[in-house]
Amino acid sequence: MFDTLRILSFLQDSLKRGRRACLVTVTDVTGASVRNPGAHMGVSEDGISCGSLSGGCIEKAVVGEALKAIAAGAPHRIAYGAGTPIIDIRLPCGGRVDLLFTPLTEAQIIDALFERLESRQLAVLALPSNAAAPQLRESGETGWEDENFMVRHHPPLRLLVAGHGGTVEALVRQAGALGIACQVVSPDPDIIAALEPTNAQARLLSRLGEPLGIECDAWMAAAFFFHDHDWETDLMAEALASPCFYVGAMGSLATHEKRMELLRTVGVSESAIARIAAPIGLIPSSRDPETLALSALVEVVDSYNAEIGAQFSRQRA
To answer: Where are the beta strands (DSSP E) in 87-137?
Structure first.
């Protein structure tokens, strides 16, 4: 999921340089597979690619097939693995993966998809298996719809980090390695200064009661790392009132009991308080900043995947 914008950027660059390209999409999976339906890979007509569809088993063959689609100027489908006639390529997992190759000669559809995701909107890409042009739709679910394979794209995960201490810096650094955009608020000017070389948007909190100043949406997670709950309470109440899919906080179970009492005093409901993941993270008793950051990041990513699945289910209903 974290490679979508990178693949779209690769295709944009190739097409705007006058190089034709191909968007390769997983349409069906039988048995075990590294990637799920809807996963993409981009290939330029010079043979350079971006993204992957397996653990390295089929990528070279995929590039070759993509170049054929580019040359023909028409989409085609192919499958690798169990039950396919391509006997020289077998997936070690014993499964099968079906792919759709969509040649691209202009960047318009990729630009539109990229812009929609960057503006934090859901987008559905309709990829025809015939000569029709790809389309962008506002609704739909991943899977075949008549002659089109639909790919449902969610806005990328963003992370709000509030607090002080080395874990804030570690989490921003680790999230950045995955391409996750971070917005940071902290009363510690040293942390703000330390984050200047990164891509994070960092803002200094100058007084108690100052709002987050960040517009949170349903694809955003909030992680709190305060030792001083005087700073934390109002900020967390604001995050809990937002559509954030995840709100987590550092501290022991005893610390969390005190946190909940403070949140009740500012009018936060029990149902909102129940949303808090505390102690934050999936690794028990994480104490050093790097491990605590990793523990929190894994929980956030896992929660994001679960939320996408939940939103998908609600859409179908």
So the answer is: 96-104, 123-128, 135-137
Pairing mode of beta strands 123-128, 135-137? antiparallel
CB 186 within 8 Å of CB 164: yes
Average pLDDT over residues 179-200: 95
Q: Could you give the CA distance from residue 220 to residue 222 in angstroms, rounded to a whole number? A: 7
**What predicted TM-score, i.e. pTM, was given to this entire model?**
0.84
Write down the H helix ranges in the chain: 4-16, 59-72, 108-118, 166-177, 189-194, 229-240, 253-265, 270-273, 289-316
Nearest to 304 by CA among 244, 249, 258: 244
- The pLDDT, as a whole number, for residue 32 is 63
- 184's tokens: 């940071």
Q: In DSSP terms, which residues pair with 183 in a beta bridge?
A: 160, 201
Going from N- to C-terminal start, the domains of the chain cover 4-153, 158-309
Task: Determine contact, residues 312/153, Cβ cutoff 8 Å.
Answer: no
Residue 90: what pLDDT?
56
pLDDT digits (tens, 9 = 90+) for 39-49: 999 999 999 99
d(CA 119, CA 60): 34
Distance (Å, whole) CA 26 – CA 3: 14
**pLDDT greater than 80 at residue 34:** no
Fold for the domain defined by 158-309: Rossmann fold (3.40.50)
Phi-psi region of 182 (alpha: psi -120 to 50; beta: other; left: phi over 0): beta
- Please tell me the distance from the alpha carbon of residue 264 to that of residue 268, in angstroms, as a whole number: 5
Are 238 and 160 a contacting pair, CB within 8 Å? Answer: no
pLDDT tens digits for range 257-278: 999 999 999 999 999 999 999 9
Ramachandran class of 209: left when φ > 0, alpha when ψ lies in -120 to 50, beta otherwise: left
Contact 158, 183 (CB under 8 A): yes
Is the per-residue pLDDT at 254 higher than 80? yes
